[in-house]
Structures are given as C-alpha cells and as structure tokens.
TrEMBL record:
Gly residues composition bias: residue spans: 14-26
Chain positions covered by the region annotation Disordered: 1-33
Any one GO molecular-function label of the UniProt entry: biotin--[biotin carboxyl-carrier protein] ligase activity
Stretches assigned to coiled coil: none
Keywords (A to Z) from UniProt: Biotin, Ligase
Pfam families noted in UniProt: BPL_C (PF02237), BPL_LplA_LipB (PF03099)
Enzyme class: ligase
Biased composition (Basic and acidic residues): 1-13
Domain BPL/LPL catalytic: 52-229
Key word Ligase present: yes
EC number: 6.3.4.15
Keyword field contains Ligase: yes
Name of the protein in its database record: biotin--[biotin carboxyl-carrier protein] ligase
Length: 301
C-alpha cells in the first residue's frame, strides 16, 4: 500500500526535529511531536494480527478517499491502516468537513473485509468502531467518553457535551469497507472550529501522547471486530448491541431526527435495534426506527 500523495508521504520514524529552522517548521510545535511510524508498525503488524500494514503520511486530503481508491485498485489488503498527520479535505457524515491543525489529533482509516458477515449487518461497523474507540481511549487516555448515535464521540467540558471525534464508513469495492476515524487530541480552546467541538486534552485526559492512543484504539478495534466476525456479525451474540447501548448518550433523551427529504421526527430515543437503527418513541405513541439522518439532542424544557 502506498498513498496517492507520494510527494508528501514520507513518515518520520523518530521523534526528533527535522531541522526546519528558526522560522517555525513542520515540527515547531514541540507539544505535538510526529507519530513514530516505525514503532507503530512494530507494535501492530504481526503475523496473527488483523493489521497488515501501517502507513503514516504527513499530509493528504482524506485518508478515507485515499484508502478506498487503494482498495478498489487492489493495492491494499484487509487490515491496512492509513494515518495522516494532517488532512485538508477530511470528511464526516452528510458531506461535512473535518479539519484540525497538524498533529493535533488522530486522523486515520482502516480497511476491513468482513467476509463471514452478511452484508445487511455491515451497518454495525460504524457503531462497533465507536465502541472500540471509546474503550481504547478510556484505557489509554483515562478520559470518559460517550457515543452519540450513530458515529460521534463526545466528551464533557464544563457540564456540556462536546464532539471530540467522528467516524465515517464507506464501501470499498464489493467486499470491503473503509472506516475513517478522526479524534481531536490536543486541540486547544482557541483552535476549536465550532463552539460544540472539544478534545481529549480539554476534557482532562491523563495521556495525550498519540502513539499509545492510536495503538490502544487499533487493538480495541481488532478485538471487537474479531468478536463480531466470529459471531457472524450478530450484534446480540457478540455483545456489541448491549455495549453500544450502555455507552450511548442518545438513548433516554428527547431528540430530533433530521431525515432525508426535509423531514424530521421528534421523540424519545428508546433503543438501538438489531439492525443498528435508532428507535424513537414519538408523541403519537409510535415507535419509528431511524437508519439514517442527523440526530440533535434536545435540551429538556
């Protein structure tokens, strides 16, 4: 696997500077050292591991777009991981952009090929990834996180929920799914793109070293993905459905689901069903599953 933006794709295997001079170069922010690609490969790419390759690039438009293209061209195997120190065209759900200063977070995509799982259960992959990310960060960063259905990672700052991460899954050819993950790690208050954003450091994380954070998230993802695949993608048998519901801050709240076609539903989020859909109980006494849409947490009146 090799990134498309080869002109700027050379990783820095160590943590030293690159001699960019006094004018402030690529590593001038000493609080944000580069990832150690060599150490990441040594720790993650093993014979019995899911992860087949770890590539770190300095800058790209979107790791998801790059890895989808590589997968469709037959140039990436299952377990390929593409990490960018900086993205300038990162994408979230509903074509939203995701941008952050270089080395202020973790921006990466992974290629999964769940051959033994029926395609109708692949919709669980973003939710599975959310559980894995939250689990890994709890272990490595010591920060409490919550999941907003379907794919946002929330932290609490001053009693308010802020988005610190997001997940985007895309098909990659007939047998693959690329899952992209963005996590704000050391983003400072004056760097927040919107007031509702947050970061692990602002939430009081005990550790903001991106190397162990990335290792922890990928190991957690490998564990959850393996368990889910062994269960044939069954969310109940694998424990995924119960674990997701336990960590989902959307459940039990009144929300507005903004749906395609300029339609919206207001109701209480009462469950995540077997297909990964959010079930809303409306004021008319109807339970309506939502499989796609934008969810807004409404404040109690």
């Amino acid at each position: 696997m090799s990134p498309r933006d080869a002109s700027d794709a050379h990783d820095n295997g160590g943590r030293g500077g690159r001699g960019d001079g006094p004018g402030g170069g690529r590593w001038s922010d000493l609080g944000r050292p580069p990832l150690n690609a060599t150490a990441l490969r040594r720790a993650l790419v093993r014979e019995s591991s899911l992860w087949s390759e770890v590539e770190v690039v300095q800058r790209t438009g979107s790791t998801n777009s790059d890895l989808v293209a590589l997968a469709e061209a037959g140039k990436a195997a299952e377990g390929a991981v593409l990490v960018a120190e900086e993205q300038n065209a990162g994408r979230g759900r509903l074509d939203r952009t995701w941008s952050a200063p270089a080395r202020s977070g973790l921006f990466f995509s992974v290629l999964l090929k769940p051959a033994g799982v029926p395609v109708h259960r692949w919709g669980w992959l973003p939710l599975l990834t959310g559980v894995a990310v939250a689990t890994g960060l709890a272990r490595a960063a010591g920060v409490d996180t919550a999941l907003k259905w379907p794919n946002d990672l929330l932290v609490t700052l001053g009693g308010e929920e802020r988005k610190a991460g997001g997940i985007l899954a895309e098909r990659a050819g007939p047998d693959g799914v690329v899952v992209g993950i963005g996590i704000n790690v050391t983003l400072r208050e004056d760097e927040l793109p919107v007031p509702t954003a947050g970061s692990l450091s602002l939430a009081g994380a005990a550790n903001t070293d991106r190397d162990p954070l990335l290792r922890a998230v990928l190991r957690s993802l490998e564990q959850w993905y393996g368990t889910w695949c062994e269960a044939g993608g069954d969310p109940a048998l694998s424990g995924l459905q119960e674990t997701y519901a336990a960590g989902c801050s959307t459940l039990g709240r009144t929300v507005r689901a903004e749906l395609p076609g300029d339609r919206s539903i207001v109701g209480e989020a009462v469950a995540v069903d077997g297909d990964g859909r959010l079930v809303l109980a409306t004021g008319e006494g109807v339970q309506e599953p939502v499989g796609a849409g934008d969810i807004v947490h409404l404040r109690p009146e």
